[in-house]
Specification:
ABC-type polyamine transporter activity; EC 7.6.2.11; six-stranded mixed beta sheet; translocase; single chain; 8 helices; transport; 376 residues; ATP binding; globular
Amino acid sequence: MTTRDRPREADSSDPQIKFSHIVKEYPTDDGGTFRALDDVSLDVGANEFFTLLGPSGCGKTTLLRILAGFETPNEGRVTLDGTDITSDPANKRPVNTVFQSYALFPHMTIKDNVGFGLRMLGRPRSEYDATALEILELVRLPQMAARKPSQLSGGQQQRIALARALAPHPRVLLLDEPLSALDLKLRKEMQIEMKRIQQESHTTFVFVTHDQEEALTMSDRIAVMDHGTLQQVGTPQQIYNRPVNRFVAGFIGEMNFIETVGTPMANGSALVFDTPLGQMHAPKEATVPPHAAILAIRPERFRLHDGSGPDKNVINAVVENVIFTGPFASVHIRCGERPQELRVRLSAAENDLADVVVGGSIKLEMPTEHLRMLAP
């Protein structure tokens, strides 16, 4: 890369990008309006890999387009490095966008494709040639400089599209589901490559996806969205291990939900809930009203109960189905007075799976520290 001062590390307390109370509405055929974004406020730190995650129609792409300058909010403002850019046209913003479609010029060499943005900025040929070669080194494709796009694989074309967007050294790179056209194996490889490129280029990436694994694999922080609102913002570990509500818990990975009955009793640092599976102990959550809580636990948090120790959070279950995958067994069980189906993932290294057979009875423990209280 050309010599540049290394940007400060990602720090959400000193945001590079700030969305403040963004509202975006579109007219509907019946004369009304559809609110795509509803009072969204969000900070993104410098040099951060930040992901907007959610199902189709949640507003994530609309928010990205507002940052790019392709859409204008009805209310609210966007600042970049302290400057209000809400009304700036797209071509006046120091950001570039990578789309799902690579949009490489088929008649140009790879080097000319990468240097195209600098050429449009009026830079001399010597500069954009040198920069293109440096960026090709960054994406580990310098040997492809003289080739045409048709001579590259899908993964290589994706890296060239990324290189072209990075060549003008934008302050922020926006990525709108750029990996969705790749096959599964190549997508996983590109997740690792994209994170490396982001770190080595010292550029803020704002990434849009509906793929939870992509978000968890690459992101420094994730904003989970639904119906135009922010549901939770946090690190991948926070989002996965401490979801704030049922939507986030169910959208990120697999989750079992257990309904509660009545008001729980206090027991030290835990609360004791009556459930269809029996009494369950769960840690207190200050932000969740106990009388309205549901309980949640990830499939991999269950343990086979060997009969030793107390029977706290232990359930009797009938095995409905077993899928053995080597180090793990995915087990569907039925349990409770009103039969409830749960999904369990047991480690072969930590559990004796010999008795886990279809139609058999097993005892399972749900460790208190892994049960989550969630708002419904």
